[in-house]
Each structure stands twice: as C-alpha cells, then as structure tokens.
Amino acid sequence: MNDTIDLLKSHRSIRKFKDQALPDGLLAEILGAGQSAATSSFLQGATVIRVSKPESRAQLAAFAGNQPYVEKAAEFLVFCADVRRAGNCCVKYEKAFAGDYTEHFIIATVDAALMAQNTVVAAEAAGLGICYIGGLRNNPRQVSDLLQLPTGVYPVFGLCLGYPDQDPEVKPRLPLSVIVKEEVYDDSQDAAEIDAYDDRIREYYRMRTGGGHGVCWSEQVATLLSEKSRPHMRGFLAEQGFGMK
C-alpha cells in the first residue's frame, strides 16, 4: 500500500550482523525517532542504556542465555522502565511519591516498549536489522547491578542493532480475524483458522531449518504457558521499588 506499511510487514529478527559500525549521527537520529513515540500522561518513563564496552557486552550476553549477537551487533541498547526521574520531580516540588503503584509500573513499561518499537522502525527504515533480547530478564539483578540501575528503574529488554548479515524469511503471524474482534471478544470461530495457521508455521520451520523441529504455534505457546516463567521477576521488581499497590 505504501513504503511504510511494506516496511512494517517485512520485519524479521536478525541474529547475525556485519562487522560494520553505524555512521556518525545515525544512532541519535534513530533514538530521536524512538523518543517521539506516544507516552502516557507525558511521563516519558523510558531510559535507554547504550552498552559499548566489550566486557560489559560479554556479561550481558551471558546473563541473557549466551546469545552471541549481544556481543557482535554494532549497537546494544537496554530499554528500561523508569519512574525514578519522575520521583526526583516529586522531591523538587515537595510532593509525596506514589510511583510504586501498579498503574505507574504499567505506564513506564509501556513507554519503554513504545519507544523501542519506534526505534526499531526507524532502524529498519535506515537499512539496519534488530533483535529484541528479553533474555536479560533471566538475570535482572545481575543486569541491574552491571548497569547500576537505581530504585525505580528496571531493564525491560535489550535491543541489538546493526547491518544484517543474513536474510531470513518473514515469520507468518496469526490471521487478522483471530486477533481483531468486532465489538466483543468472541473466539468461537478461531479453532479452524489456528489449525490452518499451525500448518503454515510447521512449513515455515521446515523451510527455515531444513527439516525443523516440527512444532507448530499452538504447541509452542501451550508449552510456554504450562511452565513457570521467570518466577524471580516479582521479587526483583519489588526490590527495585515497584510495589504493585
């Protein structure tokens, strides 16, 4: 329909990058575009840590489950949800700080995600590839200690940026009719479409991996939600000042 829509629909995760630095000024332009994302109540509750030191990258790669592209990408950014900055404003104006409510946690987390996605679109428009690194939440305390994150700040995810050295296929998404509902939530007609989608995903993995693991989407997510997922996060967030009141 237009170049922007085509770009958005062509998104892939890139896990192999060329040994090529970004030109001067490009990262600032990309992050400026990211910062232009919507922000609830004008909180601007995202902080980005740019990590360049090889030794720090190596530690983050290990914390994230030994993902080598964390070390090899031209740039690695950690997007953090941040209510500390607003808390400092409370001190400035002698107001009580109530930033440990669940709503404030949601606002800051969404702000970080929206800024990151704007950053990703700008990066891909500039010919770069990206890979989100949610694996940082495997070891959030170690990540926070390394980055010296204070109370009121937590690492939501990392982001690899660089020039792609691979050209993977676009991974098919669920049919829009499964995702978008009219007026009310009604999934009574979804089963057949999900079955057909599962067949597409099996074929995608078969073509991508030369045989693939043969696991379809519904089995993947069934496994995901049947297992404990980072049970340490609640305690860690409380330690970081997110009380979830």
Automatic annotation (TrEMBL):
Record keyword Cell membrane present: no
Domain Nitroreductase, chain residue ranges per copy: 9-163
Keywords: Flavoprotein, FMN, NADP, Oxidoreductase
InterPro entries linked: Flavin_OxRdtase_Frp, Nitroreductase, Nitroreductase-like
GO molecular function: oxidoreductase activity
UniProt keyword Flavoprotein present: yes
Cited Pfam families: Nitroreductase (PF00881)
NCBIfam families: PRK10765.1 (NF008033)
Similarity comment text for this entry: Belongs to the flavin oxidoreductase frp family.
Name listed for the protein in its UniProt record: Nitroreductase A
